């Protein structure tokens, strides 16, 4: 049967009514890929929930399809969000599909090239502020409170509803809940959504157990770990460069109630994990996504896991979103040689050394 998208597939678990338009770009239904090499190396059973294969290349499509469908149902004409890039790409795409206007506010010079390209080509009004994501979200909240514009950041509860479907898929694909769910934490909507999804599927009798939720912030923006907002968050993983997570309490509750934890990883650990999953598993995810696997590597070293336990790492966005980081992180400019067989053979030999 043809896949009909998230609203259709999980209708009975979502706030879908007779009046909700069945908007879809065929989001969701992303693969759960077994990490053969890393599992062997770390003595764990590791899987990647590869959310980069959503229509706009990130998990945001799950929440955005629900939020935009509800905005349409309510007769809204315009949606707006603040974004480190992926939310704006998803908002712009679903607004285009649904015939709505879209306004996005981004931190100037701090979003990845691919994400900016997406928002522009889908036809959103893109405004870059001289300020960070946290400030952009404050401004969006102020504007949408005063004007007939629908806010589609993850403080919109429909976003969380859509995003919880990823947990449903993990349970269906694995045949059970994993022992651990490892996930990057930025604004903290996604960890909150996964935890809600796991609990709902458990309550519906679809899984016998619940996973421990382990969330990872970037060290330079680890507000939750430090226990206070960070005015000037910094990290190479621009997607999670957030100093005052809007769903802070949701993340804390997910970790506490599941018996997991919120921890942090350094930029170095993020880039190491980022390169490792590409070079060892053939999977290209953006730096923020690699925070999940970096976190698992860190906790493994600290003796946190038992041998053979199952860990699903959420890879939140596609690596092609941020090509500049890929090239920079491996000194990746290709060797340029003459167009002859000899020159190419020479180059191959040099590269082997
Ligand atoms: N990974 C990626 C690739 C993201 O884009 C984000 C968030 C996260 C992880 C963290 O998810 O915020 O739910 O904890 N990006 C938002 C955006 C902030 O604007 O695209 P979270």
UniProtKB/TrEMBL annotation:
Class of this enzyme: lyase
GO molecular function terms attached to this record: L-serine ammonia-lyase activity; pyridoxal phosphate binding; threonine deaminase activity; threonine synthase activity
Alphabetized Pfam families for the sequence: PALP
Cofactors required: pyridoxal 5'-phosphate
SUPFAM superfamilies (alphabetical): Tryptophan synthase beta subunit-like PLP-dependent enzymes
Top-rank taxon, per record: Bacteria
InterPro entries attached to this UniProt entry: Ser/Thr_Dehydratase (IPR050147), Ser/Thr_deHydtase_PyrdxlP-BS (IPR000634), Thr_synthase-like (IPR004450), Thr_Synthase_bac/arc (IPR026260), TrpB-like_PALP (IPR001926), TrpB-like_PALP_sf (IPR036052)
Gene Ontology process terms (BP): isoleucine biosynthetic process; L-serine catabolic process; L-threonine catabolic process; threonine biosynthetic process
Keyword ATP-binding recorded: no
Enzyme Commission number: 4.2.3.1
Alphabetically ordered keywords of this record: Amino-acid biosynthesis, Lyase, Pyridoxal phosphate, Threonine biosynthesis
PANTHER family per record: L-THREONINE DEHYDRATASE CATABOLIC TDCB, THREONINE DEHYDRATASE, MITOCHONDRIAL-RELATED
Entry protein name: Threonine synthase
Organism: Paenibacillus piri
């Amino acid at each position: 049967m043809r896949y009909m998208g998230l609203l259709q597939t999980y209708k009975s678990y979502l706030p879908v009514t007779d009046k909700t338009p069945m908007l879809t770009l065929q989001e969701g239904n992303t693969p759960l890929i077994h990490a053969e090499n890393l599992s062997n190396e770390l003595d764990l059973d590791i899987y990647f929930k590869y959310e980069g294969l959503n229509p706009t290349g990130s998990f945001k499509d799950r929440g955005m399809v629900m939020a935009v469908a509800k905005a349409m149902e309510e007769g809204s004409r315009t949606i707006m969000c603040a974004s480190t890039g992926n939310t704006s790409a998803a908002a712009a795409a679903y607004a285009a599909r649904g015939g709505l206007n879209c306004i996005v506010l981004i931190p100037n010079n701090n979003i990845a090239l691919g994400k900016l390209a997406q928002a522009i080509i889908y036809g959103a009004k893109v405004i870059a502020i001289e300020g960070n994501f946290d400030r952009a979200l404050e401004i969006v909240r102020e504007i949408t409170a005063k004007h007939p514009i629908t806010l589609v950041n993850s403080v919109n509860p429909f976003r969380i509803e859509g995003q919880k479907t990823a947990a449903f898929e993990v349970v269906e694909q694995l045949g059970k809940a994993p022992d651990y769910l490892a996930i990057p934490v930025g604004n903290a909507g996604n960890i909150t959504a996964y935890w809600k999804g796991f609990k709902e599927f458990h309550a519906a009798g679809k899984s016998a157990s619940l996973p421990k939720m382990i969330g990872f912030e970037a060290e330079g923006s680890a507000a939750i770990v430090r226990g206070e907002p960070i005015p000037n968050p910094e990290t190479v993983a621009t997607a999670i460069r957030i100093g005052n997570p809007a769903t802070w309490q949701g993340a804390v509750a997910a970790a506490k109630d599941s018996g997991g934890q919120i921890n942090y990883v350094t930029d170095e650990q993020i880039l190491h994990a980022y390169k490792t999953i590409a070079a060892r598993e053939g999977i290209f995810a953006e730096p923020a996504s690699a925070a999940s696997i970096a976190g698992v590597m860190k906790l493994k070293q600290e003796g946190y896991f038992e041998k053979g336990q199952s860990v699903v790492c959420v890879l939140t966005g596609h690596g092609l979103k941020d090509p500049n980081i890929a090239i920079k992180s491996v000194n990746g400019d290709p060797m340029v040689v003459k167009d002859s067989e000899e020159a190419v053979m020479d180059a191959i030999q040099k590269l082997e050394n």
